[in-house]
């Protein structure tokens, strides 16, 4: 790799408007070297240790250390089989499109990453659980998988070794809850997508009751580069304690919406002003959701906060997927939160009562406020719901995630809510 591509390993092969590399071009660019090194020179335990030392944290939203997640999978001759590795490619978080970028533009990177990760966890079968709407990604991945089979990188006795891997691409039925790893596994088994009780965790009892690791697409794509260049190199790419680079996105009324690979810990201000180009003419910044729709708003005082898991948490939100949604001064914050809560109410799996009945009620109250029929007491009811639907009160984190934009909007934009009620109409609608 060149100096520039060494700084942006995940997107080094991505050039706008160019077709993704085929397997010959990918290998000419250094592809599948990590797979050869892993199988010929390293043990599964050595790969797990390298990932742990790199301080790679999950890029799907929770930020759980990847090496620690892998360490829970049973290893050795007595481990139950088959074992599974699943790439969570059901990217339905509003404002997030980073995994789509990777799958459509460099599909061999993900496939190589899944083979190496399967070898490291001694998985027998690997699945990509893919969002239904990602038709182009499905086409690119299927073609790349066929090429990999043809080169002996998938199937029986990979590179002449004793390691074999069965590989499948599964298209999702299209539900937001499938982003939750146990709901994803239930759906993959052909059942209604409902989260499972934890423990047991998937590493002990996952797909069809067997040991399973579920990782996000971006998380997995880091693994070949850690194997090629080492944990210390990878960790030093970052500006923070978390290792590596991160795909950050920005959407809303900025001059250049998009997605960029930058050092982990790049500040919000740098992403917004240098890469997204700042606000469009005629619009002022009011706030942002830093990691998709299920994160708390941050405002101008937070612009110099580094975008890493711990710093954003200390600022009162979550980094989530790193896909920022920008709120401008000509967009009604009540209407924006109403739109989000309608989405979360529709996407509730319906398993537990607080989520199934609470989210539609929250949306109903917000609708009344937006239409000028709200009462000041409604704000207290909304605040009560942010507590009743918070962490520990529901079966999974769907409803608590839905409460994050609401609770922070009531904190930072309360005057906008009160103005709707006093004036009995939405001020942004004349």
UniProtKB/TrEMBL annotation:
It catalyses: a quinone + NADH + 5 H(+)(in) = a quinol + NAD(+) + 4 H(+)(out). Its EC number is 7.1.1.-. It holds the Pfam family Complex1_51K. SUPFAM superfamilies: Nqo1 FMN-binding domain-like, Nqo1 middle domain-like, Nqo1C-terminal domain-like. Its cofactor is FMN; [4Fe-4S] cluster. InterPro entries: NADH-UbQ_OxRdtase_51kDa_CS, NADH-UbQ_OxRdtase_suF, Nuo51_FMN-bd, Nuo51_FMN-bd_sf, Nuop51_4Fe4S-bd, Nuop51_4Fe4S-bd_sf, Soluble_ligand-bd. This is NADH-quinone oxidoreductase subunit F. GO terms for molecular function: 4 iron, 4 sulfur cluster binding; FMN binding; metal ion binding; NAD binding; NADH dehydrogenase (ubiquinone) activity; oxidoreductase activity; quinone binding. NDH-1 shuttles electrons from NADH, via FMN and iron-sulfur (Fe-S) centers, to quinones in the respiratory chain. Composed of 13 different subunits. Subunits NuoCD, E, F, and G constitute the peripheral sector of the complex. Belongs to the complex I 51 kDa subunit family.
């Amino acid at each position: 790799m060149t100096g520039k591509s060494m700084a942006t390993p995940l997107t080094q092969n991505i050039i706008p408007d160019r077709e993704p590399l085929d397997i010959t071009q990918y290998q000419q660019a250094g592809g599948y070297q990590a797979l050869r090194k892993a199988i010929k020179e390293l043990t599964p335990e050595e790969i797990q240790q390298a990932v742990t030392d790199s301080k790679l944290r999950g890029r799907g939203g929770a930020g759980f250390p990847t090496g620690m997640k892998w360490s829970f999978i049973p290893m050795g001759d007595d481990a139950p089989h088959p074992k599974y590795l699943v790439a969570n490619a059901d990217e339905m978080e509003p404002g997030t499109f980073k995994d789509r970028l990777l799958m459509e533009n460099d599909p061999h990177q993900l496939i190589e990453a899944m083979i190496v990760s399967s070898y490291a966890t001694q998985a027998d079968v690997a699945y990509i659980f893919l969002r239904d709407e990602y038709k182009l990604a499905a086409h690119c991945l299927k073609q790349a998988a066929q090429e990999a089979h043809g080169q002996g990188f998938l199937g029986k006795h990979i590179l002449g070794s004793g390691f074999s891997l069965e590989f499948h691409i599964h298209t999702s039925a299209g539900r937001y809850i499938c982003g939750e790893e146990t709901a994803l596994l239930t759906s993959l088994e052909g059942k209604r997508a409902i989260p499972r009780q934890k423990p047991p965790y998937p590493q002990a009892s996952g797909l069809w009751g067997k040991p399973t690791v579920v990782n996000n697409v971006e998380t997995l794509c880091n693994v070949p580069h850690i194997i090629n260049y080492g944990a210390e190199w990878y960790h030093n790419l970052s500006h923070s304690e978390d290792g590596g680079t991160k795909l950050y996105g920005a959407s809303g009324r900025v001059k250049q919406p998009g997605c960029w690979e930058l050092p982990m810990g790049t500040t919000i201000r740098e992403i917004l002003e240098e890469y997204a180009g700042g606000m469009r003419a005629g619009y002022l910044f009011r706030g942002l959701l830093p990691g998709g729709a299920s994160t708390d708003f941050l405002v101008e005082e937070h612009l110099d906060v580094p975008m890493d898991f711990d710093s954003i948490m200390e600022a009162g939100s979550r980094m989530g997927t790193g896909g920022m949604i920008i709120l401008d001064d000509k967009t009604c914050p009540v209407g924006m939160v109403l739109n989000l809560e309608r989405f979360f109410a529709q996407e509730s799996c319906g398993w537990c009562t607080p989520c199934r009945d609470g989210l539609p009620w929250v949306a109903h109250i917000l609708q009344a406020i937006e239409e000028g029929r709200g009462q000041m007491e409604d704000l207290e009811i909304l605040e009560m719901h942010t507590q009743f639907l918070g962490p520990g009160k529901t079966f999974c984190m769907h409803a608590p995630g839905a409460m994050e934009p609401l609770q922070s909007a009531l904190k930072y934009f309360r005057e906008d809510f009160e103005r709707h009620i006093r004036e009995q109409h939405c001020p942004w609608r004349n």
